[in-house]
Amino acid sequence: MLKVFTQHRYLLWQFTKRQIEQRHRGSALGMVWSVLQPLMMMAIYTIVFGLIFKGRYSGIENQSTMDYALAVFLSITIFQTIAEVIGSSAGAIVSQPNLVKKVVFPLEILPLANLGAAFYQFCISLVLVLIGVATIGQGFTLHSLWFLVAFLPLIPIALGVALLLSSLGVFLRDIQHAVGPISMVLMYASAVFYSANMIPPAIWTWLKYNPLVHVIEQARAVLLWHQPLHWTGLVYSFVVGLLLLGLGLITFKKLKPAFADVM
Prior knowledge:
By secondary structure, the protein is mainly alpha-helical. The chain contains 13 helices and no strands. It has helices at about 1-5, 10-25, 35-50, 65-90, 95-100, 110-135, 145-150, 155-170, 175-190, 200-205, 210-225, 230-255, 260. The two termini are about 25 Å apart.
């Protein structure tokens, strides 16, 4: 994997750039949609869950609708990054048969380019969140810098998912049809619109193993509400991410020689 980032970094950059450009090719507003789409989604979820259903995150005093909106926006930003990786990775190898069959090509580039495009959108949305915190939120303190640590588990989690699904997607084509429902279930199981402490104990017994719950909870706590990090959840999420990354690397390496035969 390190070889891809060192020897093939230019190729990785070009494929990532192409993935980003293809998203809005032919549209009148082009890259502006990278900003408009997350803002529109935040507005929709805020109106539905904040104004209509009166949603709030528990344990936060004097919480306004705008505080809730920022928290939803941040939570969606984190979740959507993983959801996008899940959605694009299953077909990353299958969609490029010429590169698999006829060219000596570092195939790891394909899922990593999709991952790079997802993190590009993540960075844009995160900047919008930071602007919101500074203008309509509770502002920043030095403690807010811990949000950089809270996001760290996303990297190995996303890498592992990208490598695992892209390699399995060559042999199990049904994965491409299952990613939509899986992403929907994952969204509601990741405490996006609610606090983790609102989950009934019987359900929490299972949901606590979802690393995204801890990442989203920690990010909201330190960035929006200046609360301390819970290191247990953070370490757990990072360990799960490393395990996923290891599984993804092993699976991709083992299955890679058979890609051309199957396709």
